[in-house]
Write a structure and sequence with these properties.
The structure is a homodimer. Chain A is an alpha/beta fold and about 240 residues long. In chain A, about 50% of the residues lie in helices and about 15% in strands. Chain A has a single domain, classed as HUPs (Rossmann fold), CATH 3.40.50.620. The interface between A and B is large, with 51 and 52 residues.
Chain lengths: ~240, ~240
């Protein structure tokens, strides 16, 4: 293993959503050099990718040490994820979709693909630490969000690339209200305002109407989850 | 886990090279239904992908039960692998390349990416068994070819997709001469002739001159390895 955890550089999986924006702030508070990587695969919420530049501009304006630490922003195109999600289902799999309650366009193991590509990029960039917003608390039945999965993949990647990568998932055990609180700890109200204004969560890829918690359709599971988390964060605050 | 090893369908990672052609014959001899997947990522040996159709035509002509078992042939485009291989190297990584003795365009963890995409496709197709030609015996220093890596990834994929995939690597402990012998066991001289004539191994992506062992530049590491294996296979045969 030629890398070591003494290396203080990190690569953050950064989609432009609330979770990955919080992860970026978390990484900028801990590591000396931080790069970001976003993935493009024809997802409906491609608008997330546009949020990235605004969030990065805002964060670098918020803290000079964050500006000093922030390095390259990468985007990797993975059209195959879209192709696989449209691959004709066999009868067997079609039945399983029902059992799992997962959408028909579910891309199995999407986070395995993201983290493996991120590690390949980190290898080429000489970066040891990889940061992702995977979260088991609110997870919607996706097994590739689970802590056990991420730890197993970390082991497989380290064997497969002969490196000592450390995958960090600071949101793994937080709910959405905790994530808002973490953002406030890291960057104060300035970061909260930035995430509300520029981070994108809505499944429908709509900027939509402005709500207290940000923009979106307000109806889809992602908007509902984000709204519930925001309300619980705000009410807990006002009660203290 | 909704799949089970009683499922008799397999997905073979099929590049059109000698190893994956032998793996396809191996799978056709064991499983009731076999699909293939090839990956396109702008590799210089893209000619391998052209070999696939000829090898499949030849194998289905060779054995009627193979023709009955052979299902869809998939191709997944992964342009990002090419992008990552050209990603500017940091000083640190540049030094490591020297230590590792790996080429400058080394794509770290390429087999992790291939197997994860293959598993995602197998998930969508309702296929349990995944077959790849990874081999530790002749491995050129690529840690993602090692048995330990493949087993760890199998575990991570099964956790991440909540399935009981079985990754098979029938060539893991064979040398190139053993691989020719395995092909003969599976499909006789007919399969040997087919692999010699249509499988492609050359790094340079050249059809090149016709040698006893097939076509290629005859100089690159892949051609040399294939030629050495062929000669040892033939000499062992003639001495018996």
């Amino acid at each position: 293993m030629t890398n070591s955890s003494s290396d203080r550089s990190a690569l953050v999986l950064f989609s432009g959503g609330q979770d990955s924006a919080t992860c970026l702030a978390w990484a900028l508070s801990r590591f000396e050099r931080v790069e970001t990587v976003g993935f493009s695969y024809g997802q409906r919420h491609a608008i997330e990718l546009d949020s990235r530049a605004k969030l990065i501009d805002g964060m670098t304006a918020l803290r000079t040490e964050w500006a000093d630490r922030l390095g390259e922003s990468h985007t990797l195109d993975i059209p195959t994820l879209g192709v696989i999600s449209e691959t004709a289902l066999t009868r067997e799999t079609a039945i399983e979709m029902g059992e799992d309650g997962l959408p028909n366009t579910f891309v199995p193991g999407r986070n395995l693909v993201f983290l493996t590509f991120a590690a390949a990029l980190a290898y080429r960039r000489g970066i040891t630490h990889i940061v992702g917003g995977m979260c088991e608390t609110d997870y919607s039945g996706y097994p590739d969000c689970r802590d056990e999965t991420i730890k197993a993949l970390n082991g497989a990647i380290n064997l497969g690339m002969a490196r000592a990568f450390e995958i960090h998932t600071p949101l793994m055990w937080l709910d959405k209200a905790d994530t808002w609180r973490l953002a406030e700890e890291l960057g104060g109200k300035g970061l909260i305002d930035l995430i509300v204004e520029h981070s994108h969560t809505c499944y429908l890829g709509e900027r939509g109407a402005r709500h207290a918690w940000g923009y979106g359709c307000g109806e889809c599971p992602a908007c509902s989850l984000r709204a519930r988390g925001w309300n619980s964060y705000i009410s807990a605050e006002s009660s203290t």
